[in-house]
Amino acid sequence: MRVIEKHGSSRVIYREGNDSYGRFILIPAVFLCSLLFAAPVTKNSVMSLTKMENPGSDLQSQITDSGSHISRYSFLNRNEMVLDNDQETLYRFYRKLDSLREGKKSTVTVVQIGDSHLETGQLPGMVRRRLQTIFGNAGRGLIYPYRIAEGYDPLDMRIMSSGEWSYADIRNTKTRILFGGSSGKELSPGLCGYCLRLESPKAELTITPRTNENGESSFNRVTLISGEDFPLPEYRVVHSDDSREAPVMCQEVRLDKFTYSDSALNSSQEHRMITELEKDADGLKTQGAESSGIPPYRLLEAEWNNPVSSVKLDIRKSRMGESGASLYGIILANENSGLFYHAIPVNGSFFDQFNKHLLFFRQLPALHPDLVIVSLGTNDSMIDFRAENFYYQFRRFIQTIRHYVPGADILVTVPPDGFKSRNPGRKQKSENTDLQYVRRFILGQARAWDYAVWDLYKVMGGAESMQSWHEMKLSQNDMIHFTGEGYTLQGEMLSYALLKGYQAHVASNNP
Q1: At what angle do helices 122-135 and 91-101 cross, to 10 degrees?
Q2: What is the SS3 assignment for 184?
Q3: What angle do CA 417, 129, 347 make, to 5 degrees?
Q4: CB of 32 within 8 A of CB of 19?
């Protein structure tokens, strides 16, 4: 028997026995759980996962390849396809990429926060692929079973579930059951903008990443971001070829409980921060964020010696009514040095909806972000837009990010061009001119608030350019959202801008 980690009176213990399973017990505990593991995928997949990449070896080739794809679309504003104000504001991030290339740092993390434009995963997926090809693939990163919450899982993930779950999100904190009504109770949405709570005595989650463009989808570490009473699951690793389950020894399981002291701010500092943010609201406050009553969270991490391609989580509650049996996020990782690119899409979200929920910001440090990309604003411009209210909500969001992850640089993307309905029936559409006010605010505050900007609105062609995208079958008929090809093109353009910015940093610091 050996102790993996100790937290107060609780310990996570690994017990070695005569069988080929590893058992993990939380003491004191009200449940017992065992972990069953399967054989690795294939010899080739193990070699591809464990070999050390040579990050940075093909920076120029990726820029050239991305630029070649973009050049096929003549209506794009190619000359504006760069980041603004990045050499100063993203300097720390660029230096961390330098350290990764030099072998002085094992991982660098990017987190992109957005709305339905990120939901399918095609936009962030393209950026992830370009960056990981150069800097190394540390894993798929943050995922969430959105379909349980009546949303859409990203196209590169297959997540199956059983059992009964309730859910809430930043748009509506009333507890809801899948395809059911509201219970009237409230949940606190967390890192992914959602909260899932297990209502039945047991449930299963099966997670299977689909093979990406690089032919890699394996992982050997799963981290759950959960409520403090979430049961330790039994893990069953599924072979990709025939779904057999065979035991294999597990490396270790770690348990980390995050309390208020783990935040960048303590409770009194947090209260002062909220007070300061409210001072100049000028009567615009709709609902303030509360710093009290926010549940603590913890990380449950399981790690295998060898890579696997699918995992099944068997979750059993020790007693009914556990208030903390909540799930906020899942992270898939491998043992490579390289880059994480996490995407957090919340369909239909506004800046003010994030601002109301401090648990989202409190859990953000769990990802250890080096760069936060903010891709919101489309929905803010669609309904009852007020410039002064947008200014306040946008400022508050940026400042709260800075308070909780002070070590991260920030890049803000200007929302794309689009139309809005003239009537509830959506039969008549007009150019969304309020997007120009959103763009003006984002560009106008970049230097004062110390963030970089990627002006997607101008890059895609400016006002009424959505029509050109629609004619090329790059946008959907609502003239707000894009097709798969359209989102992939945006991912190409964003990765091109990021790589060009980093290339300029390398040139200026290595004459």
Answers
A1: 50
A2: strand
A3: 45
A4: no
CA dihedral over 207, 213, 215, 220, signed as positive or negative: negative
Dihedral over alpha carbons 141, 131, 170, 232 (to 10 degrees): 10
Query: Tokens at residue 290, please?
Result: 């509360």
Q: How many whole angstroms separate alpha carbon 39 and alpha carbon 23? A: 17
Closest by alpha carbon to 459, among 6, 84, 12?
84
Asked, as a colleague might, if the bond just before 369 is cis with ω within 30 of 0, I would say no
> Cα–Cα distance between 2 and 255 in angstroms, integer?
14
Q: Report which of 491, 35, 439 is spatially closest to residue 231, judged by C-alpha positions.
A: 35
Instruction: Residue 411: count other Cβ atoms within 10 Å of its Cβ.
Output: 27
What order of strands is seen across the sheet that includes strand 371-375? Answer: 338-345, 107-114, 371-375, 409-413, 452-454
N-to-C CA span, the chain: 56
Kindly give, in sequence order, each residue whose CB lies less than 8 Å from that of residue 90, ignoring residues fewer than 6 positions away: 83, 371, 409, 411, 452, 501, 505
Compute the distance between CA of residue 206 and CA of residue 72 in angstroms, rounded to an integer: 40
Provide the residue-wise pLDDT of the chain in tens; the chain has 511 residues: 222 333 332 233 222 222 222 233 232 222 223 333 333 333 333 223 233 344 445 899 989 999 999 999 999 998 889 999 999 999 999 999 999 999 999 999 999 999 999 999 999 999 999 999 999 999 999 999 999 888 889 999 999 998 888 898 998 877 776 655 555 577 889 999 999 988 888 888 999 988 755 556 788 889 999 887 788 888 877 654 445 444 333 334 444 444 433 334 445 555 555 555 544 434 333 344 444 556 678 888 888 777 888 888 888 887 544 455 889 999 999 989 999 999 999 998 889 999 999 999 999 999 999 999 999 988 888 888 888 899 999 999 999 999 999 999 999 999 999 887 645 445 556 778 888 899 999 999 999 999 999 999 999 999 889 999 999 999 999 889 999 999 999 999 999 999 999 999 999 987 6
How many angstroms separate the CA atoms of 178 and 194, rounded?
13
CA distances from 79 to 62, 150, 229, 336, 461 (A): 18, 41, 53, 36, 11
Cross-strand bridge partners of residue 316: 202
Name the pTM for this structure: 0.81
